[in-house]
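Section 5: illustrative case.
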């Protein structure tokens, strides 16, 4: 099935050995000793059989929980084998890897069984014997619904249940059922499958080990399943269906049946004739491959690797992972420029770009509407009146800042996510200036939601402060007696407090939320594709950077294979990132106040995601990015010079990027660059207008906000103070 899966990164090494460098994801309890690990044992068998002079180093990313009945041990084994095979001078056919995969599976199961590794190698439904594996044809429209309860069924218990004698009649009946099932698949005859998809040997003995199994199975049958039973050793339960819609409806009912037993669960719906292990990407030196053992529908992992994998919808709803980490997709999909409509709008580009991230999630069907609803304002790529330079204007939304894109998209997603808890959901947001207003506008008067905006008192511009406090109704502004990093810490502490979450349902709207980060990729893709179609070369970007969400979105677009060139980070006097990229250790510190206040961040939250994106390899990260600090004096000079010489008015944040562009021009860099304009200069009139020598026109939406009354409540810079306010 497409859905949850393991990922293996394999690199060829000169040493004639197999090394497991790390195991990440849903479990860290697997052995690093290759002989006692399914993936390691499979590669050892491959090396020995082929008498290879070199060895392999691998990193495993576990996306399938152990003891789930979802073939987690086989997934690692097959992913590692397929990746290693791609590194051979003459790769073997998939079928030739079958024996090595069984060698690896034997480490976990105690015997060379092919029932799990076979379908992962070839995809779909397979017949696996001790000697060979064959793919069985299945009608394309047939789907499987698999529901995995959050319950661990120990393998030893599942095996012990099968001990004892079996009557000959049971074997005869099971053989007849298997024959009917196979005949039904080959002939595409659902009636034969309905007659044969019955387990009279194993299911009766293991059913008592799966809580509420009879009700879960009946839920599948009530929704026209051709048959249903226990997946592997359990506790997961599956059903086969002729149609996708039936499988989706059944999955909901099966989850409800598990809920009756007090168990939460995850559901996967996919074609039975699903994908095989797939190569995801290779590095430029062609010495490493990454393989996902069960691809298509993405699962989302914590950057800290101590939380279960989850779906996109659940990751968006939660905001922060249970272990305090940030959610990331288990892999970044790849796309080609030809996948996009050259005449499409920003919403069309976003729909195509984000479809792989939403695949298999209940939100997937709503994605086009979400994009159309959230991205209904322009983000023009405008040529600057000098050299080969562009400006990507992201401030034409309701609050005149780029944060409108992510906030509106997140709000549109949350409106469509079902919630079992009927209590009001509180959206927490820490802001250094622009985020809070965008979130407030996106959620203002939305039923069932209240918003708490935390901002550093006295450290945002007057117009920003007015925006934050002008909504009223379900949006409350809290002026914190501290810095942005204090606000951010307080929000994270509240989201990580299980007792508080039980009393007050919480979520986040900061850039730690995937619901904000993913849509920000859309304007980079849209601009880069338009430039590439016109000029036939990639566009390079300079991104004003504070909490790193906007820059990370740009990098992910490039990692997905779209024509986007170099990315440079423009920071203000807060030098945490520039110092790191200059070779120093990552050293978060207290933020200092600057003219570019929305970037006043000393501990960027998204650095965790950035590091994850490069596999924790700081050297590779430093090779891929460059960051520079721009002080207040340089910001002032840049704003004044460009107003005087070119008639341009930039906000202080955009001015940091323009300053870097000027330096590149002085150094003779003639590549095409785009500076990212993150906010309208009218939001910072006290800084900008004296420098440009005239009043800056205020956009109508911003002017309307400034006409409203505004207020904010004081709050101490203390975790307990926020928790007390929330209760």
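Designed sequence:
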């Amino acid at each position: 099935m497409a859905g949850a899966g393991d990922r293996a990164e394999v690199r060829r090494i000169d040493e004639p050995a197999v090394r497991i460098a790390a195991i990440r994801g849903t479990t860290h309890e697997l052995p690093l000793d290759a002989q006692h690990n399914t993936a390691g044992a499979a590669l050892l068998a491959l090396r020995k059989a082929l008498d290879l002079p070199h060895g392999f180093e691998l990193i495993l990313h576990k996306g399938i929980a152990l003891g789930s009945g979802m073939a987690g041990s086989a997934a690692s084994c097959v992913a590692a084998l397929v990746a290693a095979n791609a590194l051979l001078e003459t790769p073997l056919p998939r079928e030739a890897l079958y024996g090595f995969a069984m060698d690896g599976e034997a480490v976990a199961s105690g015997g060379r069984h092919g029932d799990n590794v076979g379908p992962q190698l070839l995809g779909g439904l397979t017949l696996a014997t001790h000697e060979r594996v064959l793919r069985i044809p299945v009608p394309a429209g047939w789907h499987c619904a698999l529901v995995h309860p959050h319950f661990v069924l120990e393998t030893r218990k599942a095996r012990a249940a099968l001990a004892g004698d079996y009557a000959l009649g049971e074997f005869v009946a099971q053989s007849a059922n298997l024959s009917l099932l196979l005949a039904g698949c080959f002939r595409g005859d659902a009636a034969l499958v309905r007659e044969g998809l019955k387990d009279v040997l194993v299911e009766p003995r293991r059913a008592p080990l799966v809580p509420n199994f009879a009700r879960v199975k009946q839920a599948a049958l009530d929704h026209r399943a051709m048959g249903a039973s226990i997946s592997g050793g359990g506790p997961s339960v599956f059903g086969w269906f002729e149609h996708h819609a039936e499988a989706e409806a059944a999955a909901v009912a099966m989850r409800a049946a598990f809920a009756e037993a007090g168990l939460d669960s995850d559901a996967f719906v996919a074609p039975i004739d699903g994908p095989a292990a797939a190569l995801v990407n290779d590095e430029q030196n062609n010495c490493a491959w990454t393989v996902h053992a069960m691809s298509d529908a993405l699962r989302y992992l914590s950057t800290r690797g101590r939380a279960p994998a989850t779906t996109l919808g659940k990751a968006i709803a939660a905001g922060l992972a249970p272990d305090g980490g940030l959610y990331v997709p288990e892999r970044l999909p790849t796309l080609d420029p030809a996948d996009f409509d050259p005449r499409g709008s920003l919403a069309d580009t976003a729909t195509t770009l984000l479809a792989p991230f939403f695949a298999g999630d209940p939100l997937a069907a709503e994605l086009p509407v979400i994009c159309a609803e959230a991205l209904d304002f322009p983000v023009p790529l405008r040529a600057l009146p000098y050299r080969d330079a562009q400006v990507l204007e992201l401030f034409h939304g309701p609050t005149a800042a780029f944060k409108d894109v992510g906030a509106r998209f997140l709000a549109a997603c949350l409106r469509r996510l079902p919630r079992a808890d009927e209590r009001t959901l509180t959206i927490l947001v820490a802001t250094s200036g622009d985020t809070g207003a965008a979130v407030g506008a996106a959620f203002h008067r939305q039923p069932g939601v209240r918003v708490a905006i935390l901002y550093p008192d006295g450290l945002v511009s007057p117009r920003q402060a007015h925006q934050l406090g002008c909504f009223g109704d379900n949006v409350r502004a809290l002026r914190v007696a501290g810095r942005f990093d204090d606000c951010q810490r307080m929000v994270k502490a509240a989201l990580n407090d299980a007792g508080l979450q039980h009393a007050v349902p919480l979520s986040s709207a900061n850039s730690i939320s995937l619901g904000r980060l993913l849509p920000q990729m859309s304007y980079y893709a849209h601009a880069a594709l338009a430039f590439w179609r016109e000029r036939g070369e990639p566009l390079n970007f300079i991104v004003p950077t504070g909490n790193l969400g906007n820059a990370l979105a740009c990098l992910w677009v490039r990692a997905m294979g779209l024509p986007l060139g170099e990315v440079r980070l423009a920071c203000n006097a807060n030098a945490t990132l520039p110092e790191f990229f200059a070779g120093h250790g990552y050293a978060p510190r207290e933020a200092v106040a600057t003219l570019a206040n929305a970037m006043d961040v000393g501990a960027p939250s998204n650095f965790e995601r950035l590091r994850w994106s490069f596999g924790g390899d700081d050297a590779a990260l430093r090779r891929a990015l460059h960051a520079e600090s721009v002080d207040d004096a340089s910001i002032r000079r840049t704003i004044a010079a460009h107003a005087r010489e070119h008639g341009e008015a930039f906000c202080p944040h955009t001015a940091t990027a323009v300053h870097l562009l000027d330096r590149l021009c002085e150094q003779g860099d003639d590549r095409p660059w785009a500076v990212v304009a993150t906010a309208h200069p009218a939001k910072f009139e006290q800084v900008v207008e004296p420098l440009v020598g005239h009043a800056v026109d205020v956009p109508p939406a911003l002017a309307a906000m400034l006409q409203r009354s505004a207020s904010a409540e004081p709050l101490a810079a203390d975790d307990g103070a926020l928790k007390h306010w929330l209760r």
